[in-house]
Write a structure and sequence with these properties.
Radius of gyration: 41 Å
Number of helices: 1
Distance between the termini: 118 Å
CATH superfamily of the largest domain: Macroglobulin (MG2) domain
Structural class: mainly beta
Helix content: 10-25%
CATH class of the largest domain: Mainly Beta
Largest sheet: 5 strands, mixed
Number of domains: 2
Strand content: 25-35%
Number of strands: 10
Length: 203
């Protein structure tokens, strides 16, 4: 009668003999699982991408006029006749937050013969990080109503939304000005009677 290796009925689970290395393999697999779980957790936490900070609109700054590079030079008297064309051009730097700049040309501002809006022109919006300034240019033809003699031209620059009723502005801190003196229809082109030295200004 063949013999079979059977466990006696009175044997307990602890009395079995395990194959060599079984316990070691179980411990190794358990440690491997823990290591894998830890690695996965660390990788997933390290790959989390935070939301970018909310975008904030840059604040506007008052325009700054480069009067040294302006044309005509504010330090020289302009001599013109009625019918001549004068182009006033000045480089500008500012942070505009999307609002374009407006330049308004005025004649003899503050005097009884003041003309508060001879001509106007826009410059596109820009930023302080721009590689170069923008030019704002206003062109005007000397009209017949301008009396011969010395006159002061004022170029008033601000953001377009700051003008409430040209040339009035809501915020006077957001304004820059440039000034030119011109001798219109002088009897002698070499004579600048009653015409003061040119001056310039701005913010």
């Amino acid at each position: 009668m063949p013999r079979f290796a059977v466990s006696p009925s009175f044997a307990t689970r602890l009395s079995y003999r395990r194959e060599p290395g079984t316990a070691r393999r179980g411990l190794f697999l358990a440690l491997a699982r823990l290591s894998l779980i830890g690695l996965t957790a660390s990788m997933s936490s390290g790959c989390l991408i935070e939301d970018p900070p909310p975008y904030t609109q840059p604040e506007q700054t008052p325009p700054r006029l480069d009067l040294v590079a302006a044309t005509p030079s504010p330090d020289q008297i302009i001599v013109r006749k009625r019918g001549d064309v004068i182009e006033f051009k000045v480089p500008i730097v500012s942070e505009d937050a999307g609002d374009r700049l407006l330049g308004v040309l005025q004649l003899d501002m503050g005097s009884p013969s003041e003309v508060d809006n001879l001509a106007s022109s826009f410059a596109p919006p820009s930023t302080l990080d721009a590689s170069s300034p923008r030019d704002l240019s206003v062109t005007w033809e000397v009209k017949s109503f301008v009396t011969p003699g010395c006159h002061r031209f004022t170029l008033r620059v601000s953001h377009s939304l700051n003008f409430t009723n040209i040339p009035d502005v809501e915020d006077p801190r957001d304004v820059a000005e440039a000034y030119w003196w011109a001798n219109i229809d002088p009897p002698d082109s070499g004579t600048l009677v009653d015409c003061p030295l040119a001056s310039s200004g701005g913010t």
